[in-house]
Amino acid sequence: MIRFPSKPARRLAFILASGLGAALLIAGGAQADPKVLATVDGAPITEDDVADALLDIGPGLPQKLEGPEREKYALDYLIDLRLVAKKAESDKLDATSEFARRLAYYHEKLAMETLLSSVAKSAATEDAERKAYDEAAKANPPVEEIHARHILLPTEDEAKAALARVKAGEDFAKVATELSKDPASDGGDLGWFSKDRMVPEFADAAFKLQPGQISDPVKSQFGWHIIKVEDRRMKTFPPFEQVKEQAARFVAQKAQSDLIASLRQAAKIERADEAAKPAAPATPAAPATPAAPKTP
């Protein structure tokens, strides 16, 4: 997965996953005179109405419901919606305080989505996308990776016995499956990894090997390893065209996230669920807890 320079706010990512991305796609794309697909007591239901309904209910529809059948389902839904809503209005159910409260929520939600969609469209220019790409490429220089397998055992004697079987001609993956105490690997396969992904003792031994070579027993904090390198490569950042869509999403989401951050900064926000924050300490904070050790 390609990593761009920084991460947009998680809250914003949730908003986008909840349908804002679809709103972005249709913004400004509506026809001037959409085709009328049905009328309910004289009130038209158009192609645009069906598109809006599918944005709302589409994720919950069966995957096998495709094409015209999907649109027909949405049209039937809209017909029922109009009929039931008209009945609710005649019964004055839209005159309650609860209705007004929920209507205000959806009004604000749609306003938010419209603004964020506009911000995203304005921000996602070719120049901005290429700038984000260049920064990401600079932060991810080429790095050597190896594809390796290992056999993990608790004692040196057991590791030497496993190594003897492999040197005698037994398949490395077969011996790993039979003996290794690493339950996460299949036949000892660790996939591709760079040197910084593994603990130093393991990484130093593994990166000295050429494809096909097998190490002597190597001790780490997890036990004793027998390592076999399958292949080596230089991992380079992919070309712009290959990650253009990711760059566009990053630029759009960052612009939206920046807008929300600026609005929060300018607003006076008081929350009942949070106690008053203590004053900043006069002395530097203690260093962060060290990260958990890397495992092969």
List keywords for this structure.
single chain, 296 residues, alpha+beta, Chitinase A, domain 3, 4-stranded antiparallel sheet, two-stranded antiparallel ribbon, 9 helices, 6 strands, disordered C terminus
What does this structure look like?
The chain has 296 residues and is α+β, with helices and mostly antiparallel strands. The protein has 2 domains: 10-135, no CATH class; 148-235, Chitinase A, domain 3 (Roll). Helices cover 50% and strands 14% of the residues. It contains 9 helices and 6 strands. The strands form 2 sheets. It has a 4-stranded antiparallel β-sheet with strand order 4-3-6-5. A two-stranded antiparallel sheet has the order 1-2. A hairpin with a 2-residue loop joins strand 1 (36-40) and strand 2. Helix 2 (47-57) packs across helix 3. The chain starts with 9 loop residues before the first helix and ends in a 30-residue tail after the last helix. The model is unreliable at 8-30 and 282-296 (pLDDT under 50).
Can you describe this structure in just a few lines?
The protein is of the alpha+beta class. The protein is 50% helix and 14% strand.
How are the secondary structure elements laid out?
Layout: H1 10-26, E1 36-40, E2 43-46, H2 47-57, H3 67-90, H4 97-123, H5 126-139, E3 143-153, H6 156-167, H7 172-179, E4 189-194, H8 200-206, E5 218-220, E6 223-235, H9 240-266
